[in-house]
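*** Backbone structure tokens ***
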Amino acid sequence: MGSRRTTIIAGSLLTASFSAVMILSNTAAADDQGPGSSKGGKAVDEAPAGVKLTTLLPESISADNSSQKTAITATVKNEGTKESGDIRLLVVGFDGLTVKGVKGCSAIAEGDLPEGSNSGFSCAVGNLAAGKSKSYDVDATFDLSRTGKICLPVQTSDGAKTYWQQGPVPFGTTNPSPNAPATPLLLGTDNTPVAPGGDELPRTGGGSDVLPLGAAGAALVSAGAAGLWWVHRRPEQR
């Protein structure tokens, strides 16, 4: 990685972030996912006139109770009337959700990940035409004994501006299926961890309902209605 530089991703009530990857043969099929949703998303920096960028995540995914593998489709969309210019999509995993890979995207080095995240990938979207979208197959794992969150920021290619950020938004279930082959998880739902016998497992970190922002207790900074959560180095652009 290059010189230390600081990227700030802002968003109302934000606490985490990002993911997109190649689906492995034993991963839950993307066909099982529900319709795309922008739940938990918010515009951050003002986009150029005529550009309206958003992201979509599936309404539901399925985590294998044995392998913990799951599949997520991450989509970036330009709902505006003009092309976006050169942009990138970040896919970041937190807590029990770990992003294992995203086809065509580069892994973010551990030292450059946002506080509290466990994995992340940077996808060079390029110039997205008006009305067009681009989807990425995300290979991930979900530890059903914990909560899990994902975040999709859409930035300029150099990371100087963040036009949109979805998340950190949780996947989870309030009705676990410990004895079934897989557990369905819904977007925007905090996970209720249980053991195969139905006993609740201890929640990890500083409480499963709050995204951990570092062992040192990184604080969520308020600037008006926006929370700033990423104060780490931005991966060097190649």
User: Anything to note?
Assistant: Residues 176 and 183 are 6 Å apart (CA to CA). The first strand starts at residue 10 and ends at 11. The chain has a mean pLDDT of 76. The chain has no helices and 16 strands.
